Amino acid sequence: MIDTTKNYLIIDIGTGNVRVAITNSKGQVLGIERENVNYNKDEKYQEALEFDPNELWRQIIRLSKKVLLKFPHASISAITVSSQREGIVLIDRQNNSIVGLPNHDHRGRNWEGEIKEKDYISRKCGRYPSSIFSALKLVGLRKRHPEIFDRMTTFLSISDWAQFMLSGVKGYEHSQASETLLYDVEAKDWSQKLCKLFLIDIAILPPLHASGVSLGPILPEMAKVLGLSSQTQVIVGGSDTQLAIKSTSPTLDDVIIVAGTTTPIVKLITKYIIDPRQKTWTNRHIEEENFILETNAGVTGLNYQRLKEIFYPREGYEIMEKELQLKINTTCTASLGSLIADEEQPITLGGFLMETPLSQDLSRADFVRSAIQDIASCIKKNYEYLCSVSPHDKDYIWGCGGGFQSGTLTQLLADLLGKEIRIRDGFQHASIIGGILVCNEFLGIPKTILEIKVKSTTPNTVNDILHKHQKWQKIRNQVKENFNN
Q1: Phi, psi of 35, deg, nearest 5
Q2: Tens place of pLDDT for every residue, the chain, 485 residues?
Q3: Exposure string for 112-126, b = 16+ CB within 10 A, e = fewer
Q4: Among candidates 160, 118, 161, which has minimal Cα distance to 136?
Q5: CATH number of 249-418+453-485
Q6: Pairing of strands 214-217, 233-239
Q7: What's the CATH code, domain 7-242?
Q8: Where are the beta strands (DSSP E) in 37-75?
């Protein structure tokens, strides 16, 4: 039965797709619609991608209308937005959306070497400066598209931009601001010196907003377009990773693995931590006084998704998982370029290594199983590095994100890490569940109302699991030495 009293519209703008969901305050996703996000290359750079924010907004309106039509009696109390980190939308003086630069836009790559005071930036921003972050995107834009840069009067994170389109209020949420290189993460404020280092006028930066506050009611014209009450509140959301973390309801010093397109491995902390080797990120969490310490295994989820499309294009995950269970002792080993925090350079070539001559038992499941082992081993290495910066002695780890649809991955992680893996219902919609919690908190609804169960996967005593990990490590090292030039 639909809870018509407290229903929410939650917009989630990821790297691959945009989703719009109707949920209720009990943690149930009632309906969801999605479309792929479209990107275009900018030929003035080697690695530049952009999107048309006006096209993206039309997608959001279309998906919102579609899902709302399925639940005509659902009274929407609040709307919130999550989005990919590092991505931004540029706004001009007339409040037009000029261009969108996604997280995987690297138009600033050629100017990384010109950055001054990198150690200072690392101390203040909690990360080593690189082209993934928003300030370098703006530097690259200024260098080769000065006409666009000069037209800009402000820029917003993608989630803050969508909230601006709904409410008419500009702002920047703190977890998103952590990704700009213009924000002092410990001081929780924009930094005049950081702006000067990137030759960006601090005056263009919008006010900072905390996740969970209301920007006010939806704009009347937006309420009319979507058929919503003019009293529907627009609530500040935040980055998709932090909202996914929130969905697990972790406690202080918990570790959470977010298995999405990439796989952040994070620890919830209350003190700002600086990694002397500058390999981790320290970000603001969407909860006011907390930080998250992060390593990231890279595009693990993307590899997993593409392999499913190649080997299991017409089968569901259930069939794939059944076949994977029969390949526990596969002799195939994969190294597919996932990231490890303490490696100096990423691996740009990879593949599968098999015993020869090829076994007659070799099947598609061998390839996918070895890829999942590659993902689990990379997560283990990143977890170990995270622990070297901030020790973790709890006997469990939280998991969320679509990657945990694989019971094989979940069990491998439990076995490799020697930890219980805890996953809440709705884990595959973690950012959306986090959005429910944000809306509930604004409306004063306690966490206890959520009807979300926890499933636990405990480690098996598997004699050869560490042997397989060591074999994987040896092969990865050989790939780096011989092919990573």
Answers
A1: -145, 155
A2: 444 469 999 999 998 899 999 999 998 999 999 999 999 999 999 889 999 999 999 999 999 999 999 998 889 999 999 999 999 999 999 999 999 999 999 999 999 999 999 999 999 999 999 999 999 999 999 999 999 999 999 999 999 999 999 999 999 999 999 999 999 999 999 999 999 999 999 999 999 999 999 999 999 999 999 999 999 999 999 999 999 999 999 999 999 999 988 899 999 999 999 999 999 999 999 998 899 999 998 888 878 888 888 999 998 888 999 998 888 888 888 888 778 888 877 777 788 888 888 888 889 998 999 999 999 999 999 999 999 999 999 999 999 998 998 999 999 999 999 999 999 988 999 999 999 999 999 999 987 666 668 899 999 876 688 888 888 888 888 887 777 65
A3: eeebeeeeebbebbb
A4: 118
A5: 3.30.420.40
A6: antiparallel
A7: 3.30.420.40
A8: 40-41, 49-50
Determine contact, residues 255/267, Cβ cutoff 8 Å.
yes
What are the φ and ψ backbone dihedral angles of 89, each rounded to 5 degrees? -125, 130
Tokens representing 383 are 């977890």
CB burial of 30-46 (b: ≥16 within 10 Å; e: otherwise) equals bbbbbeebebeebeebe
Rounded Cα distance, 279 and 302, in Å: 22
Give the DSSP H or E segment for 351: strand 351-353
Using an 8 Å Cβ cutoff, are 118 and 111 in contact? Answer: no
Map out the domains of the chain as residue ranges. Answer: 7-242, 249-418+453-485
What is the 8-class DSSP label of residue 218? P
What's the burial of 243, exposed, middle or buried (CB within 10 Å: 0-12/13-18/19+)? buried
Q: Which two tokens stand for residue 293?
A: 């310490």
249 to 424, 445, 457: CA distances (angstroms):
9, 15, 18
Are 7-242 and 249-418+453-485 in the same CATH fold? Answer: yes
CA torsion through residues 120, 126, 130, 134, sign: negative
| DSSP states along 371-423 | HHHHHHHHHHHHHHHHHHHS----SEEEEESGGGG-HHHHHHHHHHHTSEEEE
Nearest partner of 291 among 185, 200, 201, 364, judged by Cα = 185
* Token pair for 351: 């593949």
Instruction: Concatenate the DSSP letters of all residues of 185-208 into one string.
Output: TTTTEE-HHHHHHTT--GGGSPPE
Per DSSP, the residues of 414-433 read: HHHHTSEEEEETTGGGHHHH
Q: Tell me 254's DSSP state.
A: -
